[in-house]
Amino acid sequence: MLESKKIPPLDEEEIAYFYSLLQEELTNYDCGTLCKDQNGGIPFCCSVENAVPFLYRAEFSFLKKRTDLWKVWNPKTKNEIKLQKSHEDEHTVFCECKGVAFCERENRSISCRTFPLEPYIDKRGVFVGLVFMREFKHGCPLTQRTKDIRQEFIDTNFLFWEKLMLRKPNEYETYRRSSIAYRRYRTKTKEEFPIFFPSHLKGKEYLKKYL
């Protein structure tokens, strides 16, 4: 919390720049077709029952000037209220959109544009690639179709996260801890997890001992 006081929040100009980086599509097809039939016709990631978009407050302000697609999320259950209280702060807010039927691709949030991947920090503390968000490991069908994820998506998302973590070190710390948890899970279960490398790091043998 002390760190958040020292580092100014993101502003709308920065949000616009980040949106410009996150333009690539995740797959060469509509990946929502893989899961919507099992989720009442709604893609897994487009339902707040499965994943509530987490927006920067500057991002929400930026979007409100462009569209009426988004509103502040209203938690209904005890667990949802607990989630809201434990994660929201003066810089972030949970939001929801009108739904997949009203989706405006140009007005998707950062959470939408980066789903279902997040940064992976290796044993040295170096950002080397992207991994599936663990909490959605069994919900998103792309975890079983890793080859469908476009390299262009990986490259632009890597660039975004690299810039964001330099701008907000607390974000780096969040993913450093989640990466440690991933490795502990791997040690405990012997279950490997895919790491999606940006083009400039693909095939680098020296990385293996740090993963």
Map the helices and strands.
Layout: H1 2-6, H2 12-21, E1 54-56, H3 57-64, E2 70-72, H4 78-87, E3 92-97, H5 110-114, E4 117-121, E5 127-132, H6 151-167, H7 169-189
Antiparallel strand pairs: 1-3, 2-3, 4-5
Helix pairs in contact: 6-7
Describe it.
The protein is α+β, with helices and mostly antiparallel strands and 211 residues long. It is built from 7 helices and 5 strands, in the order ααβαβαβαββαα. The protein has one domain. The protein has helices at 2-6, 12-21, 57-64, 78-87, 110-114, 151-167, 169-189, and strands at residues 54-56, 70-72, 92-97, 117-121, 127-132. Strands 1-3-2 form a 3-stranded antiparallel sheet. It has a two-stranded antiparallel ribbon with strand order 4-5. β4 (117-121) and β5 (127-132) form a beta hairpin. The protein is globular, with a radius of gyration of 17 Å. The model has no long low-confidence stretch (mean pLDDT 94).
